[in-house]
Design a protein that fits this description.
alpha+beta; Jelly Rolls; seven-stranded antiparallel beta sheet; three-stranded antiparallel beta sheet; 4 helices
């Protein structure tokens, strides 16, 4: 396939790679995750463009900053329609039934997207940010947009009770004493991962980059996707 012309990329920043194919994987042998590698035609251009957006701290305990693309951009809308169809046709029929508000979800009606940068120093995390979390939607999606190693997503079984440990420090990791690690999604550059948002999880945040200026110069960037019935 010939690379897109520069003017086509500018008009279709969220253009998808026509050769990308979804696969269903079981993380930890039990958590169904839909993976699409080599998702975007030009992920470098998308990352560069996304980093020019205006990022703000959200009103919930995310360890970083959030920005939205121009949601009326035809390229964004085309991307969201394609991913919505992917979830409805390739993911929901292959996983156990899920429900919201006591109603079974057979299809989602809409999807939204934004970008997130993780840049909070481990010593500056709040107590909530040091623990894994669940998302307020049944199905969640991430695109890993990091050519440098910036980690994937870790999944855990819930503890019997919320740990009360004033000595906890840093981001939750695979060897956390309070949570049993299930498995992880590797944060491969230009990979889309779709997974149940109600399973405890956290970003895999480790390495020297998160304690140095690298967290600002070459930040951990993900594109997030939420799906609504």
């Amino acid at each position: 396939m010939s690379p897109p012309e520069p003017q086509a990329l500018a008009a279709n920043l969220f253009g998808l790679n026509p050769d990308a194919r979804p696969t269903l994987e079981l993380v930890g042998g039990r958590l169904p995750v839909l993976i699409v590698d080599q998702l975007f035609s030009d992920p470098e251009a998308l990352r560069s463009n996304a980093l020019t957006l205006s990022y703000q701290s959200p009103d919930y305990p995310y360890p970083g900053r959030i920005a939205e693309p121009a949601l009326d951009d035809p390229s964004v809308q085309s991307f969201l329609r394609t991913v919505l169809s992917l979830v409805n046709e390739q993911y929901l029929p292959k996983i156990p039934p899920i429900a919201a508000n006591n109603r079974r979800i057979d299809a989602f009606a809409r999807a939204l997207t934004d970008f997130a940068i993780t840049d909070v120093h481990p010593e500056e995390l709040t107590e909530t940010q040091r623990r894994p979390h669940t998302d307020p939607v049944p199905i969640f999606g991430l695109v890993y947009l990091n050519p440098d190693e910036r980690g994937g997503t870790l999944f855990f079984d819930p503890p019997a009770s919320i740990p009360d440990d004033p000595d906890r420090r840093g981001y939750c990791s695979t060897d956390d004493a309070h949570y049993r690690f299930i498995g992880k999604i590797e944060g491969i550059f230009n990979r889309l991962a779709i997974y149940p948002g109600f399973v405890l999880h956290t970003g895999e945040i480790s390495g020297n980059w998160i304690t140095s200026d690298e967290r600002f110069k070459t930040p951990r960037l993900t594109q997030r996707l939420v799906f609504f019935p």
